[in-house]
Amino acid sequence: MSALPLFRRALADSWRGLVGWMLGLAAVVGMYLPLYPSIGGNPEFIAIIESLPPELVTALSYDQITTGSGYTLGTVHGLIGFVLVTIAAVGWGASAIAGDEERGTLELTLAHGVSRHQLVLERLAAIVVKLVALTAWVTLLVAVLNGPSELDISTEGILAGGVALLGTGLVTATIGLLAGALTGRRMIAIGAGAGIAVLGYALNALGNQNADLEWLHAISPYHWAYGTNPLESGFDASVGLLYAVAIIASAVAVLAFRRRDVGV
């Protein structure tokens, strides 16, 4: 029997989708970052930003958009790139267990001498590899365009931004995986994964509104990732919370799936 059969099969079955996500992210990075020299210090652009409600500017992370790191956060890592990675992570996490269970193929897989914890861990490993590929790709593109786009982001900032983006994807994927392990229902798993991403973004936005709501930052995965703008300040310990949540969610998913009856 070949090593890691479920891991290998998961990657073989999804590589085309992975390439599609990478092309989408390349389009986003390639479209937005080269625009920075023409709009970063543009008086008209700055006037437009200043005309917006301060709460909206802060919620969208546009308060630092005139700097290269702030612009990259506001367009790629904290907005469109974040959305694309989140959508990919939600789909992969929700399908890992619940997708097969709803199709009626999960019991067949388990009947071939595959243990439940092996199934969860190998499919989780495939998700991790794909998310690492996506975020490494974004990191590489930012590094390549850093000079030509006059972003002036440090090497540490570029790497820290990639680590933060990966952390958000892992939280989303593992929460979806956990919901699928608990319920066996793909839509519930999708809702859980997407819900944690939307909730984290909303809590961060609300926490930015005034000092009385800043406590919401402490429970926002989005703020853990981008509260200090890793592209500007480099690595921050709060990003470790994302990885801690992902590890805990993965462990609970393994335990939950081992104890649950599998059915359609």
TrEMBL record:
One Pfam entry name: ABC2_membrane_2
Membrane-traversing stretches: 18-35, 79-99, 120-145, 157-180, 187-206, 237-257
GO molecular function: ABC-type transporter activity
GO cellular component, one term: plasma membrane
Keywords in alphabetical order: Membrane, Transmembrane, Transmembrane helix
PANTHER family: INTEGRAL MEMBRANE PROTEIN-RELATED, MEMBRANE PROTEIN
Name by which UniProt lists this protein: ABC transporter permease subunit
Organism in which the protein naturally occurs: Microcella pacifica
